[in-house]
């Protein structure tokens, strides 16, 4: 007979690996399809690859509940500076009400409590003093994070903006997440050496 004994204490919560994504996708479909009462729960969400797209956005903010090497549940979190949200959090239907979701939420709350100051966009207009002003901009971002007691400052820059990139590296920033920008006709757009722009397209 099925048991309702809590599993929480036996579960290992870890970040999702790429190899986990097929199982996470199946659990996502089964959970929502079962909850909505679909005749074939696995057909929920059609051919959309929701788990993979969320994982690619920020693998470090994804969580899996593992028991004996088997994925039981997953959760996808999003961090935007001092704002954080999560979901979907899905658990295998045969394990509902057994403390699995609680363990995932605990790990997610720890992530949010870690504190990240996220710079979505910032720019300095081209001028002879742009390099100096860009340094002042970075100082302001750091002070903003300190005032809100956020220990981590995250900002994105394209390496094609060489001066801004070198300035940020000298300031102490290090690569955390790599992306590729492709411009039509190989046009550099605003990814040029003299452009001082911080942005993040995640």
Please report the total strand number as a whole number: 9
Q: What CATH architecture of the largest domain do you see?
A: 3-Layer(aba) Sandwich
Q: Unreliable runs, pLDDT <50, ≥5 residues? A: none
The coarse silhouette is: elongated
Number of domains: 2
CATH superfamily of the largest domain: Gcn5-related N-acetyltransferase (GNAT)
CATH class of the largest domain: Alpha Beta
The CATH topology label of the largest domain is Aminopeptidase
Distance between the termini: 46 Å
- What string gives the helices and strands in order? EHHEEEEHEEHEHE
Q: Helix share of residues?
A: 25-40%
**Beta-sheet strand percentage?**
15-25%
| Main pleated-sheet profile | 5 strands, antiparallel
Give the mean pLDDT. 86
Radius of gyration: 21 Å
Helix count, DSSP H or I runs of 4 or more residues: 5
Structural class: alpha+beta
Record keyword descriptors for this entry.
5 helices; single chain; 202 residues; 9 strands; Aminopeptidase; 5-stranded antiparallel β-sheet; 2 domains; alpha+beta
Q: Please, could you describe this protein's structure?
A:
This protein is an alpha+beta fold and 202 residues long. It folds into two domains: 8-113, Aminopeptidase; 116-199, no CATH class. The protein is built from five helices and nine strands, in the order βααββββαββαβαβ. It has helices spanning 21-35, 50-57, 100-113, 130-147, 162-171, and strands at residues 12-14, 62-67, 70-80, 83-86, 90-91, 116-119, 121-124, 152-155, 196-199. Strands 1, 2, 3, 4 and 5 form a five-stranded antiparallel β-sheet that branches. The longest helix is centred in the C-terminal third of the chain and has 18 residues, at 130-147. The radius of gyration is 21 Å and the shape is elongated.
């Amino acid at each position: 007979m099925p048991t309702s004994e809590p599993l929480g204490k036996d579960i290992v919560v870890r970040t999702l690996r790429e190899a986990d994504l097929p199982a996470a996708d199946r659990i996502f479909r089964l959970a929502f399809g079962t909850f909505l009462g679909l005749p074939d729960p696995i057909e929920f969400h059609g051919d959309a690859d929701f788990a993979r797209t969320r994982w690619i956005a920020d693998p470090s903010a994804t969580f899996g509940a593992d028991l004996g090497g088997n994925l039981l549940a997953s959760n996808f979190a999003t961090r935007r500076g001092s704002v954080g949200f999560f979901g979907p959090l899905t658990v295998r239907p045969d394990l509902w009400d057994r403390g699995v979701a609680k363990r995932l939420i605990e790990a997610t709350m720890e992530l949010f409590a870690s504190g990240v100051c996220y710079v979505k966009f910032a720019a300095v207009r081209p001028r002879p003093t742009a390099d100096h002003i860009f340094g002042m901009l970075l100082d302001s971002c750091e002070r903003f994070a300190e005032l809100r007691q956020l220990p981590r400052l995250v900002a994105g820059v394209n390496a094609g903006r060489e001066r801004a990139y070198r300035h940020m590296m000298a300031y102490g920033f290090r690569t955390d997440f790599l992306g590729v920008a492709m411009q039509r006709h190989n046009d550099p757009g605003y990814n040029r050496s003299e452009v001082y722009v911080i942005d993040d397209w995640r």
